[in-house]
Structure prediction request, 313 residues.
Amino acid sequence: MSDFFANKRIVVTGGAGFLGGYVTEGLRKRSCEYIGVPKIEEYDLVKLSDIIRMYEGMNPDIVIHLAAVVGGIGANRERPGEFFYKNMMMGVQLIEQARIRNIEKFVAIGTICAYPKFTPVPFKEEELWNGYPEETNAPYGLAKKMLLVQSQAYRRQYGFNSIFLLPVNLYGPGDNFSPASSHVIPALMKKCVDAIESGADHIDCWGTGSVSREFIYAPDAAEGILLATEHYNGSEPVNIGAGFEITIKELAEKIAKFTGFTGELRWDSSKPDGQPRRRLDVSKAKKYFGFEAKTSFDEGLKATINWYKVNRK
Prediction:
C-alpha cells in the first residue's frame, strides 16, 4: 500500500453505514489519520446549511460520497419521491460546495439501478444512456445518474476532479436485515433463519425467481472504491462488480442450504421481479485502477449468515 491517504483529510458521507464501515476500515489500514464521518444525528445532508457546516468543520481534501436513501423493490415502490429528492439533493449540493471550496477530489457513488431496464449483458458503461431504468427503482437510479452528469459538466467547465463509480448489489456482514427496507440477500437469510426457529415449513419469496442478479461482497466493493480514489481521475463512469450472475431462485436455494432451512420456497408471482438480468462488465475497473473482486460468493454468503446468526438479537 502507498502513503497516498496518510496525510489527507478524508470525509466519508455514510461512513457509519454498511459499506461506509468497510471504507473507513480500509482508510485506517492505509494509515489515514483524519477520517471525517458526518453522522445523521448531527448533519442532514439534504440541507444546504448542514452541508456547509460539515465542510467548514471537517475541511476535507477528498470526499467519498456513500450516503444514500436506499432500499429494496418494496421501499422503492412506496417512497419513489423521497428516494429521488433526497439522493439528488444530497449529491448535487455536496458536489457544488466541494467545487466552491476547490477540494482535491470528489468520489461519487452511483448505483446499478441507473442502467436501462434492458441493458445488454454484461452491462458496459457505454450503455448507461441507451434507455430508461427499470420502473420500480428508476427515481433512485436517475437521481444518482444526475451526479454523473454534474461530475462530467464540472470537469469540463471548472476542471473539477470528480469521479463516478457504479457498484453492483452489495451484501456482507453488517448488512440491513430490516424487513421493511432490506435487499434480497439479507431478506432471504432472515426468512430462512426465522423459519427454522419457528418451525415453519415454507417461506414466501417475491416474484418468479427467474431474474438474475450480480452481487459483490461489501469489503471487496470498499477496496474497489479506495483503489479508484487513489488511482483513477477520469470522467468515464466505472463499474465496481464481481462479474457473475445468479438467478434469484438459485440464490434462494443456496441461502436455504447454507442456513439449514429444508422447507418449501414459495414464489409469489404477483410481486415484481425488477430488472430481468444484471451482470456487469468489470474490465474497466481492472484496467484503470487494478481492481478485481476477491471473495467467492459461497464464502461471502456463509460469512454473512454467520454474522447475522450471532448479531440478530
